[in-house]
């Protein structure tokens, strides 16, 4: 049986009479339950004879977006929503080891120990970003597991564009940037066996509203609200899950070939001067991405060098002059 909150979330307004019939309770009991939800922090307007109207604002509680999912797998597994957690990637890894099915999702309002790439911290203040981790169990050879990172970047770029019209670019391998500043970071944590991928946790942090970027990072990082009225986070999430399912299918059936055209269109790295740091340090021009997702950079001596990990800075992007 639907709960009162689910009934309110599903429609613009629901009359007291309908609720009392559906839940088999008196009108007075309906009023009491509405009051109880208000006490929990839900904004519910009374509209006379029309009934009750839930003002959900920018909330991301699953009951608000689960009915709007347009996917077959992603978002249909175990779904965990927390107001506060240490890290949704850590939560999702734990659930993966407990047997959570592919398509499971952990999302939250704030992370107290959000994880970034290369052991960095990811600052995740309450209610201003989309902090979530998706579990996928793709049918990919372990060698091709890095392709999932491109799927996530492309899917989030599409999701943002669909929700608010902004067109983020992808800085190799998977940062999303707008106006040369990072708006989204992606962290994959995988469990890979000899012949198959067991699971991949795809953690994505999208800076949506002001307050999501710490002031000391303002030169390199931004949020969607710096460029346009911010979209509802749950709308971005539903778009992301749908696009991600599509890109994953393409990667499973055609490997890098299934993604390369979309990636080239959205890349702000290919064709640009880049500086590579980390295990190997050099500058050059980013010419292509190979079938396993490595960046091919022509160095100053004219040799093509393959960059798999390490930090790549792109001239004009995120503070690289
Ligand atoms: C990066 O350094 O660019 C990657 C940042 C990834 C942050 C996201 S937020 C949701 C998920 N949970 C985490 O602890 N990290 C990822």
Describe the structure in brief.
The chain has 321 residues and is of the alpha+beta class. It is 29% helix and 27% strand.
Can you describe what's shown?
- The protein has 321 residues and is an alpha+beta fold.
- It folds into 3 domains: 2-55, Arc Repressor Mutant, subunit A (Orthogonal Bundle), CATH 1.10.10.10; 62-266, Bira Bifunctional Protein, Domain 2 (BirA Bifunctional Protein, domain 2); 273-316, SH3 type barrels, CATH 2.30.30.
- It is built from 8 helices and 14 strands.
- It has helices at 4-10, 16-23, 27-39, 62-65, 88-97, 147-164, 233-254, 257-266; strands spanning 43-47, 51-55, 79-85, 105-111, 129-136, 169-171, 175-178, 181-192, 197-207, 273-277, 282-289, 295-299, 304-307, 311-314.
- A 7-stranded mixed beta sheet has the order 3-4-5-9-8-7-6, with helices on both faces.
- Helix 6 (147-164) runs antiparallel to helix 7 and helix 6 (147-164) crosses helix 8 (257-266).
């Amino acid at each position: 049986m639907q709960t009162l909150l689910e009934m309110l979330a599903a429609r613009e307004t629901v009359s007291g009479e309908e609720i009392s019939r559906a839940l088999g309770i008196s009108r007075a009991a309906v009023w009491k339950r509405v009051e109880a939800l208000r006490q929990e922090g839900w904004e519910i307007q009374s509209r006379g004879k029309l009934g009750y109207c839930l003002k959900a604002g920018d909330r991301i509680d699953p009951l608000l977006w689960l009915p709007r999912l347009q996917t077959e797998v992603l978002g249909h597994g175990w779904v965990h929503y927390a107001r506060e957690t240490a890290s949704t990637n850590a939560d999702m890894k734990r659930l993966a080891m407990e047997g959570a099915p592919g398509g499971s999702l952990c999302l939250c309002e704030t992370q107290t120990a959000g994880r970034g790439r290369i052991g960095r911290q990811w600052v995740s203040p309450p209610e201003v970003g989309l902090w979530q981790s998706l579990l996928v169990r793709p049918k990919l050879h372990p060698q091709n597991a890095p392709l999932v990172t491109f799927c996530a970047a492309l899917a989030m770029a599409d999701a943002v564009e669909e929700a608010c019209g902004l067109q983020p670019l992808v800085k190799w391998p998977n940062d999303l940037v707008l106006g040369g500043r990072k708006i989204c970071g992606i962290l994959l944590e995988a469990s890979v066996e000899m012949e198959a991928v067991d699971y991949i946790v795809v953690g994505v942090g999208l800076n949506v509203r002001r307050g999501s970027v710490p002031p000391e990072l303002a030169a390199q990082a931004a949020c969607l609200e710096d460029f346009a009225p911010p979209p509802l986070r749950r709308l971005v999430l539903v778009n992301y899950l749908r696009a991600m399912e599509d890109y994953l299918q393409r990667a499973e059936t055609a490997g890098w070939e299934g993604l390369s055209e979309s990636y080239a269109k959205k890349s702000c790295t290919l064709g640009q001067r880049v500086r590579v740091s980390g295990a190997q340090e050099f500058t050059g021009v980013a010419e292509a991405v190979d079938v396993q997702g490595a960046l091919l950079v022509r160095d100053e001596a004219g040799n093509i060098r393959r960059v798999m990990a390490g930090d790549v800075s792109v001239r004009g992007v995120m503070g690289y002059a």
